[in-house]
UniProtKB/TrEMBL annotation:
The family this protein is said to belong to: Belongs to the UPF0173 family.
Keyword presence, Hydrolase: yes
Key words of the record: Hydrolase
Residues annotated as domain Metallo-beta-lactamase: 8-191
Origin superkingdom: Bacteria
InterPro entries in UniProt: Metallo-B-lactamas (IPR001279), RibonucZ/Hydroxyglut_hydro (IPR036866), UPF0173 (IPR022877), UPF0173_UPF0282_UlaG_hydrolase (IPR050114)
Native species: Aquiflexum gelatinilyticum
Lineage: Bacteria, Pseudomonadati, Bacteroidota, Cytophagia, Cytophagales
Protein name as it appears in the record: UPF0173 metal-dependent hydrolase NU887_07105
Gene Ontology terms for molecular function: hydrolase activity
NCBIfam families: PRK00685.1
Amino acid sequence: MIELTYFGHSSYLVKINGTKILFDPFISPNPKASKIDVSSIKADYVLLSHGHEDHVADAESITKANNAMLVSNYEIAVWFAQKGVEKHHPMNIGGSKKFDFGKVKYVNAIHSSTLPDGSSGGNPGGFVVKHQAGCFYYAGDTALTYDMKLIGEEFKIDFAILPIGDNFTMDIHDAIKAADFVGTKKIVGMHYDTFPYIEIDLEAAKKAVSEAGKELILLNIGDSITL
């Protein structure tokens, strides 16, 4: 069992056997996350799926404050290294790395990736995290892709953290297909309702997932769940 805490948009803190892994922190610029004190967030690792500001805005401050390890693709890792982030580990699509909490594979995502200053953010990706208690998939921003079937063939996915906001990423119907592809019945929603572009009908989304025989988990900002 692991614990997930939601900080809004696409930012989740995952606790695995005492290790804290933070994904895509966009908190301080997000008005909907105004009750979250960024300085109070403790993280051992910060994993970044791609370079857009709504995924990396608080990465530098949180990583430095916690002396955490920043993990992303090569371009993003180097960009943060140049900003003084001492602990960083670069990856690229298809590569895996064992960390103290488990094994991370950086997998394909169909999206774009530009860093806040206009620098190239390299290829966007997602993460499959295999740990002692199980395995989960954090998709990052992505379209539905047949590559997700490869994840289902290689791993037993307990749950998938998937974008559901449409417009820039998958919608809920493609997210259901993505869950089918990776072989899970549990969808943890992200990348929805933060901006007008990605506001969705949550009740309709819940109904669609229920009718597909799956579970849609939508957390309030600041709330936690054990899976």
